[in-house]
Design goal:
Blueprint (H helix, E strand, L loop, with lengths): L1 H43 L3 H24 L4 H40 L18 H13 L1 H41 L5 H55 L5 H13 L5 H14 L2 H11 L1 H15 L6 H15 L3 H20 L5 H5 L12
Length: 380
């Protein structure tokens, strides 16, 4: 009996040591893997935004790449090069030129204030009748028209500080445009290996959430394409139309105004804050005929936003359009331009997870019989 107890105690000791060794091995392995992951992330962290943008562009433009590749009889490299070149010329160059124009205009205003060469006309008496701010605006305007030096001494420092902040923001936009240009070029190298990369991503997703993980990858690709068409595409269309109309009518700073339309449309404010003041200005400064024609041409620009965007953004997705819009707005406010895509993707995946949680499990046969066009990260 005593020998049995001794043997049992020895066996328990071996089990405890074996368990401790297994736990120690697991901790060491996790520490090594975690350290490697952390060090790898620190190496790619400076480029993570460009990598995300390149991936988004590659997914969004892949249908165009496929069509162009067929048109060029299978020359994928040439198709990728053409798309990259057009992307740099059509997207980066005009926006970069507008950014430079805005910077030069702001610096010119700063120089005028510093050199005190601004000629300010006398304010109309009617300015005093403006609600709330009329008297203050009239006093400041009148001081600037009578004694510019005193006005600059009084209002110059805050104006210069504001202008310097604007210049800093514009410089940040310029650097962002440079990074975006690099992302466009990197995206060109992702078109040919795109299906293989998509399958690799799906393999990792299946290890995390089985077949549902692969469906989330499909959802990510479809959301990127829809947001690209519904937000970026519509915003570019509205900005181009606004710039064309303003150029035809000879409106000053048409490029800067079109850029403002683009930004307001992308951040989901809409073009109304830009279009409405233009219409009011036209009726105050132009004859009835040109003002009426300009109004008729500008009014459809906000309507395009309400008609095309819901159709393009919800196409092929089960995620409610309201949730997509909330993701676009919330993502843009929280994460900036990259959040324009991350917001609806995250909310879409969360919605699908919650839906899958309350629904019965989908049979394997239903998964295999899906349309192949809905798979491969939206690349095919």
């Amino acid at each position: 009996m005593a020998d049995d107890h001794i043997a049992a105690a020895a066996d328990n000791t071996r089990k405890v040591k074996s368990f401790d060794r297994a736990v120690t091995d697991l901790v060491i392995r996790l520490t090594i893997i975690g350290s490697l992951c952390y060090l790898s992330f620190t190496l790619i962290a400076p480029f993570i935004i460009m990598i995300i943008w390149a991936t988004i562009l590659a997914v969004a433009l892949y249908p165009i790449f496929t069509a162009l590749k067929k048109l060029l009889r299978g020359h994928g490299g040439l198709a990728a090069a053409l798309i990259t070149l057009v992307g740099v010329l059509v997207i980066v160059v005009p926006l970069g030129a507008v950014t430079v124009n805005l910077a030069e205009t702001t610096l010119g205003l700063v120089d005028l204030f510093e050199n005190q060469t601004v000629a300010v006309p006398r304010p109309p008496i009617s300015v005093q009748d403006w609600p709330l701010i009329g008297s203050r605006v009239y006093d400041a305007w009148n001081l600037a028209s009578n004694n510019l030096e005193a006005a600059i001494a009084r209002f110059g420092p805050p104006l210069l500080q504001t202008a310097s902040g604007i210049v800093g923001k514009i410089a940040g936009v310029g650097f962002g445009m440079l990074g975006f240009a690099v992302s466009v070029i990197v995206a060109g190298f992702l078109f040919i290996p795109g299906p293989g990369l998509a399958n690799a991503i799906k393999s990792y997703a299946r290890r995390i959430a089985d077949e549902r993980g692969a469906e989330f990858v499909d959802l990510t690709g479809a959301t990127i394409r829809n947001i690209s068409r519904g937000v970026i595409g519509v915003a570019l269309l509205q900005a181009l139309l606004a710039g064309l109309i303003l150029s035809v009518f000879g409106i000053p700073a048409a490029g800067a105004i079109a850029f403002a339309v683009l930004i307001f449309c992308i951040i989901q404010v809409g073009p109304v804050p830009v279009v409405l003041p233009l219409i009011i200005w036209a009726w105050l400064t132009k004859d009835t005929g040109p003002a009426l024609l300009l109004t008729i041409l500008l009014i459809p620009i906000p309507i395009i936003d309400n008609v095309l965007k819901p159709v393009l953004m919800a196409r092929g997705l089960t995620t409610p359009i309201l949730l997509i819009l909330l993701g676009v707005i919330g993502g843009t406010v929280t994460y900036g331009m990259i959040g324009l895509f991350l917001g609806p993707i995250l909310l879409g995946i969360f919605y699908e997870m919650m839906t899958a949680w309350v629904k019965p499990e989908v049979p394997e046969s239903a998964i295999e019989d899906r349309d192949p066009a809905s798979r491969d990260f939206g690349l095919k």
